[in-house]
Amino acid sequence: MSQYFEVHPLNPQPRLLKQAAQILQAGGVAAIPTDSSYALACHLDDKAAAEQLRRIRAVDHRHHLTLLCRDLSELASYARVDNRQYRLLKLATPGPFTFILEATKEVPRRVSHPSRRTIGLRVPDHPVTSALLDLLGQPLLATTLIPPGESEPMNDPALIRVRFEKTVQAIVDAGACPMQPTTVIDLTGDAPVVVRLGRGDPALLGLALQADA
Length: 213
Known about the structure:
This protein is an alpha/beta fold. Helices cover 27% and strands 20% of the residues.
Protein backbone atom coordinates (compact mmCIF):
# COMPACT_ATOMS: atom_id res chain seq x y z
CA MET A 1 0.00 0.00 0.00
CA SER A 2 1.42 3.36 -1.00
CA GLN A 3 1.81 6.38 1.23
CA TYR A 4 -0.31 9.32 0.13
CA PHE A 5 0.94 12.87 0.57
CA GLU A 6 -1.37 15.84 -0.03
CA VAL A 7 0.84 18.87 -0.62
CA HIS A 8 0.23 22.48 -1.59
CA PRO A 9 0.92 22.86 -5.34
CA LEU A 10 2.83 26.13 -4.95
CA ASN A 11 4.24 25.91 -1.42
CA PRO A 12 4.60 22.19 -0.64
CA GLN A 13 5.04 21.27 3.01
CA PRO A 14 8.74 20.38 3.58
CA ARG A 15 7.90 17.68 6.13
CA LEU A 16 5.75 15.76 3.65
CA LEU A 17 8.22 16.14 0.81
CA LYS A 18 11.02 14.85 3.04
CA GLN A 19 8.98 11.74 3.72
CA ALA A 20 8.36 11.24 0.01
CA ALA A 21 12.07 11.80 -0.72
CA GLN A 22 13.00 9.18 1.88
CA ILE A 23 10.75 6.65 0.15
CA LEU A 24 12.47 7.39 -3.17
CA GLN A 25 15.93 7.15 -1.59
CA ALA A 26 14.96 3.78 -0.10
CA GLY A 27 14.13 2.36 -3.52
CA GLY A 28 10.45 3.20 -3.85
CA VAL A 29 8.58 4.29 -6.97
CA ALA A 30 6.42 7.39 -6.62
CA ALA A 31 3.73 9.10 -8.67
CA ILE A 32 4.63 12.79 -8.71
CA PRO A 33 3.20 15.93 -10.35
CA THR A 34 5.01 17.75 -13.12
CA ASP A 35 4.27 20.67 -15.43
CA SER A 36 2.91 18.28 -18.06
CA SER A 37 1.17 15.37 -16.33
CA TYR A 38 1.85 13.06 -13.43
CA ALA A 39 4.96 10.91 -13.77
CA LEU A 40 6.34 7.75 -12.24
CA ALA A 41 9.72 8.40 -10.67
CA CYS A 42 12.45 6.53 -8.82
CA HIS A 43 16.04 6.90 -7.64
CA LEU A 44 18.48 6.96 -10.54
CA ASP A 45 20.92 4.51 -8.95
CA ASP A 46 18.39 1.87 -7.84
CA LYS A 47 18.25 -0.97 -10.38
CA ALA A 48 15.27 -2.73 -8.80
CA ALA A 49 13.24 0.49 -8.67
CA ALA A 50 13.97 1.20 -12.34
CA GLU A 51 12.78 -2.28 -13.26
CA GLN A 52 9.62 -1.78 -11.21
CA LEU A 53 9.01 1.51 -13.00
CA ARG A 54 9.26 -0.25 -16.37
CA ARG A 55 6.92 -3.02 -15.23
CA ILE A 56 4.26 -0.55 -14.09
CA ARG A 57 4.36 1.20 -17.46
CA ALA A 58 4.73 -2.11 -19.33
CA VAL A 59 7.66 -0.79 -21.40
CA ASP A 60 10.89 -2.52 -22.35
CA HIS A 61 14.51 -1.33 -22.29
CA ARG A 62 14.16 0.33 -25.71
CA HIS A 63 11.71 2.84 -24.25
CA HIS A 64 13.48 6.08 -23.40
CA LEU A 65 13.25 6.92 -19.73
CA THR A 66 13.80 10.52 -18.64
CA LEU A 67 16.03 12.17 -16.08
CA LEU A 68 14.26 14.98 -14.24
CA CYS A 69 16.99 17.52 -13.47
CA ARG A 70 17.07 20.53 -11.16
CA ASP A 71 18.54 22.90 -13.72
CA LEU A 72 20.39 23.15 -17.00
CA SER A 73 23.77 22.80 -15.29
CA GLU A 74 22.78 19.46 -13.78
CA LEU A 75 21.32 18.29 -17.08
CA ALA A 76 24.64 18.99 -18.79
CA SER A 77 26.37 16.65 -16.33
CA TYR A 78 24.34 13.70 -17.57
CA ALA A 79 24.33 14.43 -21.33
CA ARG A 80 26.84 15.44 -23.95
CA VAL A 81 25.76 18.92 -25.02
CA ASP A 82 27.38 21.05 -27.71
CA ASN A 83 26.83 24.78 -28.20
CA ARG A 84 23.99 24.34 -30.70
CA GLN A 85 22.14 21.96 -28.40
CA TYR A 86 22.77 24.17 -25.38
CA ARG A 87 21.10 27.15 -27.04
CA LEU A 88 17.92 25.12 -27.63
CA LEU A 89 17.98 23.70 -24.11
CA LYS A 90 18.29 27.19 -22.67
CA LEU A 91 15.21 28.33 -24.56
CA ALA A 92 13.12 25.39 -23.36
CA THR A 93 14.11 24.93 -19.72
CA PRO A 94 12.47 24.81 -17.35
CA GLY A 95 9.38 23.65 -19.20
CA PRO A 96 7.39 20.77 -20.70
CA PHE A 97 10.06 19.57 -23.13
CA THR A 98 12.05 16.34 -23.04
CA PHE A 99 15.29 16.16 -25.01
CA ILE A 100 16.93 12.99 -26.30
CA LEU A 101 20.69 13.37 -25.91
CA GLU A 102 23.78 11.20 -25.75
CA ALA A 103 24.28 10.04 -22.16
CA THR A 104 27.51 10.63 -20.26
CA LYS A 105 29.15 8.03 -18.04
CA GLU A 106 27.22 9.52 -15.11
CA VAL A 107 24.12 7.72 -16.44
CA PRO A 108 24.00 4.01 -15.57
CA ARG A 109 24.13 2.02 -18.83
CA ARG A 110 21.10 -0.04 -17.79
CA VAL A 111 18.80 3.02 -17.93
CA SER A 112 19.97 4.47 -21.25
CA HIS A 113 18.79 3.20 -24.63
CA PRO A 114 20.51 -0.20 -25.14
CA SER A 115 21.73 0.42 -28.70
CA ARG A 116 21.97 4.21 -28.95
CA ARG A 117 23.33 5.06 -25.48
CA THR A 118 20.89 7.96 -25.31
CA ILE A 119 18.62 9.21 -22.55
CA GLY A 120 15.72 11.62 -22.19
CA LEU A 121 16.41 14.68 -20.05
CA ARG A 122 14.32 17.61 -18.91
CA VAL A 123 14.00 20.37 -16.31
CA PRO A 124 10.38 20.44 -15.09
CA ASP A 125 8.71 23.71 -14.18
CA HIS A 126 6.69 22.63 -11.13
CA PRO A 127 7.32 23.75 -7.52
CA VAL A 128 6.70 20.30 -6.03
CA THR A 129 8.97 18.48 -8.47
CA SER A 130 11.67 21.11 -8.04
CA ALA A 131 11.50 20.86 -4.25
CA LEU A 132 11.76 17.06 -4.39
CA LEU A 133 14.79 17.26 -6.66
CA ASP A 134 16.43 19.78 -4.32
CA LEU A 135 15.90 17.42 -1.38
CA LEU A 136 17.39 14.47 -3.26
CA GLY A 137 20.32 16.41 -4.69
CA GLN A 138 20.33 14.46 -7.94
CA PRO A 139 18.02 13.69 -10.88
CA LEU A 140 15.07 11.33 -10.67
CA LEU A 141 14.54 8.63 -13.27
CA ALA A 142 11.01 9.06 -14.60
CA THR A 143 8.42 8.24 -17.22
CA THR A 144 5.03 9.75 -18.02
CA LEU A 145 2.27 8.06 -16.01
CA ILE A 146 0.34 6.41 -18.85
CA PRO A 147 -1.39 3.17 -17.80
CA PRO A 148 -0.52 0.07 -19.85
CA GLY A 149 -2.63 -0.21 -22.98
CA GLU A 150 -3.71 3.43 -22.86
CA SER A 151 -2.46 6.49 -24.71
CA GLU A 152 -3.40 9.38 -22.41
CA PRO A 153 -1.37 10.38 -19.33
CA MET A 154 -3.02 10.61 -15.91
CA ASN A 155 -3.45 13.97 -14.19
CA ASP A 156 -5.93 13.27 -11.37
CA PRO A 157 -4.20 12.10 -8.16
CA ALA A 158 -7.42 10.63 -6.76
CA LEU A 159 -7.74 8.35 -9.79
CA ILE A 160 -4.04 7.54 -9.60
CA ARG A 161 -4.55 6.48 -5.99
CA VAL A 162 -7.42 4.15 -6.89
CA ARG A 163 -5.46 2.59 -9.72
CA PHE A 164 -1.91 2.44 -8.40
CA GLU A 165 -1.95 2.52 -4.60
CA LYS A 166 -0.98 -1.16 -4.47
CA THR A 167 1.68 -0.75 -7.15
CA VAL A 168 3.72 2.31 -6.18
CA GLN A 169 5.20 3.17 -2.82
CA ALA A 170 4.19 6.85 -2.73
CA ILE A 171 1.73 9.24 -4.36
CA VAL A 172 2.37 12.97 -4.10
CA ASP A 173 -0.95 14.77 -4.56
CA ALA A 174 -0.51 18.40 -5.63
CA GLY A 175 -3.85 18.61 -7.39
CA ALA A 176 -4.56 18.14 -11.07
CA CYS A 177 -1.79 18.63 -13.64
CA PRO A 178 -2.16 19.43 -17.32
CA MET A 179 -3.23 16.27 -19.12
CA GLN A 180 -0.52 16.36 -21.77
CA PRO A 181 2.85 14.67 -21.94
CA THR A 182 5.98 16.63 -22.74
CA THR A 183 7.05 17.46 -26.26
CA VAL A 184 9.99 15.18 -27.08
CA ILE A 185 12.82 16.50 -29.25
CA ASP A 186 15.71 14.33 -30.45
CA LEU A 187 18.93 16.37 -30.53
CA THR A 188 21.30 13.53 -31.40
CA GLY A 189 21.29 14.07 -35.19
CA ASP A 190 22.42 16.85 -37.46
CA ALA A 191 19.14 18.72 -36.91
CA PRO A 192 16.53 18.62 -34.09
CA VAL A 193 13.62 16.23 -34.69
CA VAL A 194 10.26 16.57 -32.95
CA VAL A 195 9.51 12.97 -31.97
CA ARG A 196 6.32 13.63 -30.02
CA LEU A 197 4.10 16.68 -29.85
CA GLY A 198 2.95 17.45 -26.36
CA ARG A 199 2.45 20.45 -24.11
CA GLY A 200 5.63 22.25 -25.16
CA ASP A 201 5.28 24.32 -28.32
CA PRO A 202 8.14 23.54 -30.75
CA ALA A 203 7.61 26.95 -32.36
CA LEU A 204 9.18 28.49 -29.25
CA LEU A 205 12.39 26.80 -30.35
CA GLY A 206 11.99 27.67 -34.00
CA LEU A 207 11.06 24.09 -34.91
CA ALA A 208 8.33 22.74 -37.19
CA LEU A 209 5.06 21.86 -35.49
CA GLN A 210 4.59 18.46 -37.15
CA ALA A 211 6.01 15.50 -35.22
CA ASP A 212 8.33 13.12 -37.03
CA ALA A 213 6.78 10.11 -35.31
